[in-house]
Please model this.
Amino acid sequence: MIPVSITNCGPLGKTSLELPDHGIVLILGPNLSGKSLLINSIASYYLASAIVNVNNKFFGGALMDRLLDPEWSELFGECLDPLEYLSSEIPYEDVSDYEVKLDEIISRGLNITLRQYLASTITTTELCLSRGIDPWVQDRQAFINIELGLDTKYLIRISMPPLDPKKWGSQILIRQAYVIPKDNPEYLGLVINSPLTFINKYYAQHEIEKHNPRSYSLSAILTSIIKHKYKFEKKSKFKELISLAWKEISGVEPKKFEILEEENQYVIVINNHKYPWNMTSYGIMNLLAQELLIDILPWFKLIEVKPLIAIEEPEVSLDPYTVYLLACKYCELVKEYDALLLISTHSEILVKGLEDALREEKIKPNHVRVYETMKGEKSLFTLKKCEVSDKGIAASRLIRIAEKIIIRSQKILR
Model:
């Protein structure tokens, strides 16, 4: 169990939550209550901690190996190295000497280590981009403050978006983007917040995406897989969801339904017709983005870290029955890959699906946490923990609201 203390997280004030070792964490609540900001902050932190501290040949070796590797070095560009320490000419004798000299230079300028510097910039950049904000802005503007403590020791303190330290002075970085990375991270964090953007980043289709640090990070992961010629069987986790929803909602059973990868692109095959992924609905793109992520989950076992995945509103553009079935698929991922899924949602149907999964023993209650954003005393919102048991989840406001809507609809129909 990982305790997370929250001092600030946008509209969320002083509160706390706990993460299971692996499992599902649901954050429920209205728009603009801090749900997605919270899960993206945690995932961004664990992405940064893994990049700076994981030492595994399937992940490009140690940090210094990654810094000197041509494919990986693209990741540490302008956004992740705003003070250009890594692009400066530094004479060194060997890899360990290079790290010592970088530490000395960064310590003189910022009074932190190389790893703290990179953890701060990676976490900040990933978090800003997950919210559609450019990091290191030139002019002062309204800030969102985030301050979290993880596992009683590790700290995130970010003002988003942070000011450009080249314009405002190097110390502004420490005041607005300060992160202490986890020494031996057991997770690597990734974010799915926009299916179309995630798919484009996966395939790096558009030239503009190639200059996006988040695209580099995903590309670096895929490059590591390709370098070691690691092959794994691709299993479609979501094909049957679509087929079941068709049958349940419309009574349609296609003779053939496949999700194939042709020429490095997903193609949907229905009977004898093929549809490129970008010609399908946004709901299908949502499922495909999650499918792409699942394709690389076997690789996490090779690098000996667990996947920590922040999924923002997975119900978007999906029919209700598919949303209901998603919960069981998420339980399968937890069991197969020791995954930790952080999910922000408005969907009472997803909650219902998870309740039924608990009752059917597809996931254990101690691997599930459910929180609601509630009115805070000194802030707009705080977190309230919902009781979880093998009988289900204590009635949340979402369920109660859904019941009221159904009752009201029944009265109108009468």
Q: What stands out?
A: The chain has 15 helices and 16 strands. The mean pLDDT is 85. The radius of gyration is 22 Å.
